[in-house]
Design goal:
Elements (H helix, E strand, L loop, with lengths): L2 E5 L2 E4 L4 E8 L6 E8 L6 E7 L5 E3 L7 E6 L4 E6 L8 E9 L17 E2 L3 E6 L1
Length: about 130
Amino acid sequence: DVQLVESGGGLVQAGKSLRLSCTASGFIFDTYAIAWFRQAPGKNREGVAYINNYDGRTQYLDSVKGRFTISKDNAKNTVYLQIQGLEAEDTAVYYCAAAQLIHLSLVTQYLYTHLYGHWGQGTQVTVSS
């Protein structure tokens, strides 16, 4: 079974940095893409970053470019989301999601929830001012 486990969330002061991890199992890592989403209270879930586990190509939500960095470690089957300069607006539950690359071959915009069939349980990030 495909499993995604997020970790690294917590309570962080505004301006600080945080690194979230998404550890995957149950599939061949480099045949999938993984994206990070977040959902703040009362808001829709939004995609913030994407990475192709085969070639490393990335895509970001415009509003987080320059502060969020997605990366991967194929040897550890893990994708990371580094967040710098945390803001109160970053407070949300952060989820990672996986999709087979073959199913994304005609896609150019990767940050839509409907593209992903496998989801982790989420990790809470709370930014205090």
